Amino acid sequence: MKKNKFIVKSNRLLAKYTYEMELKGDISSIKRPGQFIHIELDGFFLRRPISICDWTASSLTIVYKAVGRGTEYMAGLAEGAELEALVGLGNGFDTQKSGEKPLLIGGGAGIPPLYALTRKLLENGKKVTVVLGFNSADEAFYISKFTTLGANVIITTADGSLGVRGLVTDAMDGLDYSYTYACGPEPMLKAVYDKALTDGQYSFEERMGCGIGVCMGCVYRSKTGYKRICKDGPVLEKEEILWQT
Amino acid sequence: MADLSVNLSGLHISNPIIPASGTFGFGHEFAGFYDINILGSFSFKGTTREPRFGNPAPRIAEASAGMLNAIGLQNPGIDRVISEELPRLRQVFSKPVIANISGFSLEEYAYCCERIDKEEQVGIIEVNISCPNVRDGGMSFGTTPESAAAVTRAVKAVTTKPVYMKLSPNVTDIAEIAAACEEAGADGISLINTLTGMRIDLKSRKPVLSNITGGLSGPAVFPIALRMVWEVYEAVSIPIIGMGGVSTADDVIEMMLAGAAAVGVGAANIRDPFASKKIIESLPDSMERLGISRLADIIGGAH
Ligand SMILES: Cc1cc2nc3c(=O)[nH]c(=O)nc-3n(C[C@H](O)[C@H](O)[C@H](O)COP(=O)(O)OP(=O)(O)OC[C@H]3O[C@@H](n4cnc5c(N)ncnc54)[C@H](O)[C@@H]3O)c2cc1C
Ligand SMILES: Cc1cc2nc3c(=O)[nH]c(=O)nc-3n(C[C@H](O)[C@H](O)[C@H](O)COP(=O)(O)O)c2cc1C
Ligand code: FES
User: Fold this and answer.
1) Ligand 2 proximal residues by C-beta, below 6 Å
2) Would the pTM of this model clear 0.90, i.e. be above it?
3) Which ipTM was obtained for this model?
4) Strand B163-166 to strand B122-128: parallel, antiparallel, or no bridges (unpaired)?
5) Do B59 and A219 touch (CB under 8 A)?
6) Any catalytic annotation for residue B112?
7) Domains in chain B, please, with CATH?
């Protein structure tokens, strides 16, 4: 993990409430898909955690939903703006466990980290199926990008305006898969966990202070003891998960 | 050459900056960012007799110019602090550390302080009395002069190192409590801990923190902390570690003018892991600009 200055290379609306931002800077501390960055914003005391969607040798991309004051402020940043961020935080997904036919399931703002994960798994020669869940067609993003990578992509929308009507779990029946990776809101993670037939890794969110494992602000009680979502997570193994509600 | 050194009850530290308890872990976590030997010292996470998991999440909320936390004193317990954290710290920090101790009964305070007093890495014992007294109705030990003095006496009876009592600001008259601690034998006073506050999520219409309330800290509390350090300085003659909202070198100087002999930096480390380093590095410039050659000379200078 490192703290670096980044320059906004682009920041554009992708879908309803959803933006894609490319940040140029030192990305050398990124090790795995599923890690996140923690972005300092002028006028906000706490940094915002956002998953790394993908990265190149000198830049990284994030995709974020404007849901509150901080993310709305981010949406207003113009090209050339400077940001400081801690980079390469968290454990990320372990691609070694995927088996030959991994299934990746993402809901809404949980989809971005699955993009680099899909890319890595395809590079490793795996046959990747991705289920992307949205509320409705106007909130959908990145579908063609996942398809272009070479994944088998299944879309679900809650209102039926695109793809399968219903939740991501409604698209899981009949799929043949070796391992499950999931990221999305906690009710979605729980539904996937209950339905999945394989081992898997699930990426969690928690409100954070430091983002580097010192303040104990983001702690999750797992079956194997407490986990700091910012440091020991955000990705947890299926067998570690203890549903709190 | 600007002289940044200060003296806390015989412990000479190279500069007054002390990352505050709960915001600096057990130190080694920050060693990946910078050489933490540049610090005057730091206060490690509040430690109790048993390991504690703390409160359910969410434990953190944002505020204008600050943050609320309701960690609930999560810590590995005194045994593991001594057997694991201190040896790990020794690898990256060669100076005396400040041991922050919490408890829920007089016996627990005494037990933990007696244990930590034997550790040669420990320079000062900082006793957090913001915790509820479970034997006596759950009121915080820090809310009456009598209970604050009782903790002080219990700890002083079993220790040899300087004992600093860390006071809660959630009281009517903090100076009265500081004076009671001094009379009971305290070697110094640390203040302030966090101020009780809360936030409500507008969408769910429920408190953000699962604990409902949490402790506010960060720049928002600086003027309150400064006022309390001022009042305590008027009431006692033992050294004060002043903290609350400090985020710049100028804040450090202001805190010292109010009466602090050393200055804690808390939430600023959470916003920016380099905050304490940046403050130390900019202190000489601030001193020069303000015509200060020896920082120790300005302690209480505004009185
Ligand atoms: C590891 C991780 C990865 C994430 N990745 C993405 C992503 O790729 N794309 C995306 O759109 N969102 C992502 N989020 C959620 C994102 O962090 C929140 O939407 C964002 O912090 C909201 O900030 P705000 O100021 O707009 O909202 P406000 O509600 O005004 O924020 C107030 C405070 O609460 C915190 N907060 C609010 N919602 C969340 C949340 N869901 N999780 C954690 N903290 C929250 C904020 O950080 C801030 O400190 C991720 C969260 C985590 C923990
Ligand atoms: C996340 C967090 C955890 C804390 N934990 C402790 C603790 O364990 N013991 C303690 O005495 N104070 C604790 N504090 C209080 C700080 O040490 C400090 O007194 C207070 O935050 C005021 O300083 P600041 O405004 O610079 O943060 C904690 C503060 C924060 C923000
Ligand atoms: S946010 Fe501080 S430990 Fe995770």
Assistant:
1) A 209, 215; B 20-23, 45-46, 69, 71, 73, 100, 128, 166, 192-194, 217-218, 221, 243-246, 265-268
2) yes
3) 0.93
4) parallel
5) yes
6) no
7) 6-52+76-195+215-298 (3.20.20.70)
